[in-house]
Design goal:
Order of helices and strands of chain B: EEHEEE
Shape of chain A: globular
Helix content of chain B: under 10%
Shape of chain B: globular
Number of helices of chain A: 10
Largest interface: A-B, 60 and 25 residues
Distance between the termini of chain A: 53 Å
Number of strands of chain B: 5
Helix content of chain A: 25-40%
Radius of gyration of chain B: 13 Å
CATH topology of chain A: Rossmann fold
Oligomer: heterodimer
CATH topology of chain B: Ubiquitin-like (UB roll)
Amino acid sequence: MSLTEEQVKRYSRHIILEQVGGVGQEKLLSSKVLIIGAGGLGAPAGLYLAAAGVGTIGIVDADKVDLTNLQRQIIHHTADVGKEKVKSAENKMRAINPDIKVKTYHERVRADNIREIIREFDFVIDGTDNFSAKFLINDACYFEKIPFSHAGILRFDGQLITVLPGETTCYRCIFNAPPPANAVPSCSQAGVLGVLAGVIGSLQATEAIKYLLGLGRLLTGTLLMYDALEMNFRTVKLNRNPKCPLCSKTPQITELKDEKQIVCDQKNCKC
Amino acid sequence: MNLVVNGKETNITDGLAISELLIQENVKMPNMVSVEHNGQILKRTEFETTILKNDDKVEFLYFMGGGSVIN
């Protein structure tokens, strides 16, 4: 692939970077990234990856745009309320950059479809809200050996880690299994500062681009924690867990299954 | 004795178990916390049996959702 004159202009601020150059930009244009969840985290990730010229972007989400989403899910506009999130996201990404191809999946990820979906991508961004999906993505990426960025946000805090399955600390190395019901509030119950999603989702996009271009040091084996109120970023080194139920030498999980959906029932919730 | 808890120097009484530290540090929902002790993630059953020593490093790691409800 060689860049057209228009592409040289469009991506000039990338191309001028010694570490990217024309070769790196062409690499991005031939790369494929899947974003699971067109919500708070997926919104900035999708917009930046589209602008960056990641050639194929997949987006998975079964929801429609709701008015309550607009406070943070900046890929969706007021006029999109009621539309499929994946279509709304596709429109914005293609509007920013018609160079790219967007593949939409208006469905939930489940044990019986996720491997098929993620298989053709080079990198996965977990932009989901719930723990059953987060564990499913971790496990599916492990079985398919696809690197991914995990992230979570709540109230004024966010965290992320990049996983190279089988090589670096995975989500199950840290959190063995989903938390018990009512143990963890979700954004809809506890609230979240909208811009927090922008910060963390943009960091996920940064990791995707670094991985695709082989640049710098990935956030592997390290959890980054961001506290917006203290304006503090902190990293914790996390070794692989020799007792990890998934990626250790003696795994208990040998095939994908759907984790029970953990929701916080308001009545019994301690949050 | 001195500990480093979530990156901060903390002084605690000797002989405390991880489970007691969780209470002392006012962790309201211990069910949602994973604990790293000197670079090793502990099993939940080890919270009560792991006794802290001087200069140990402890990290409380929290479950966080966020993003989009899709599942």
